[in-house]
């Protein structure tokens, strides 16, 4: 269901939001003008992972391989317009390489095709990649985030290797209608931040 900011201007209705929605051209609302941010609940890390058969053990080696094989390197994501897709586009621009995007409908079919060798690499969430990277079925080359991932502390950010790479951060947050009183938004922000500062509420959200 599409959010209707006019339906509850006083703020009792909150809307879950992710940044990828702002990249869509036709929306029945303005994500900037019709809403105000309440709180970011969690930030997520995406990871560039490859099938071990690909002759690349680092982002630098991957870039070198892509330059020697322009247009032949495919990468999968959960879909067109996703933050993972944007991460691949920005990598291609910053590294001056020609890589082809293959959109899937979700992380499971994407990772299955990488594991099976149908495509050589993918950009997926850290939680999706982690179990396969730990068993050696996938090789994690780079983290797409402003900071390294706690799940992959030894895997560098792509920006550490590729100059000019601006990692698109992925997050999950709550928005309120723009007409919501500032006092209501501030109180919600404070209460939610207090709740998430508790160890039992925060631990499951670590990336």
Question: In summary, what is this structure?
Answer:
With 207 residues, this protein is an alpha/beta fold. It has helices spanning 59-68, 83-95, 107-116, 126-134, 158-161, 182-196, 199-202, and strands at residues 15-17, 35-44, 46-50, 73-77, 99-103, 121-125, 139-144, 170-177. Strand 4 (73-77), helix 2 (83-95) and strand 5 form a beta-alpha-beta unit.
User: CATH H-level name of the largest domain... which superfamily?
Assistant: Periplasmic binding protein-like II
Beta-sheet strand percentage?
15-25%
Radius of gyration computed on alpha carbons: 19 Å
List the strand order in the largest sheet: 5-4-6-3-7
**Unreliable residue runs:** 203-207
Helix content: 25-40%
What characteristic shape results from the CA principal axes?
elongated
Helical/strand content category: alpha/beta
> In the CATH scheme, what's the topology name of the largest domain?
D-Maltodextrin-Binding Protein, domain 2
Write the topology of this structure:
Elements: E1 15-17, E2 35-44, E3 46-50, H1 59-68, E4 73-77, H2 83-95, E5 99-103, H3 107-116, E6 121-125, H4 126-134, E7 139-144, H5 158-161, E8 170-177, H6 182-196, H7 199-202
Parallel strand pairs: 4-5, 4-6
Antiparallel strand pairs: 1-8, 2-8, 3-6, 3-7
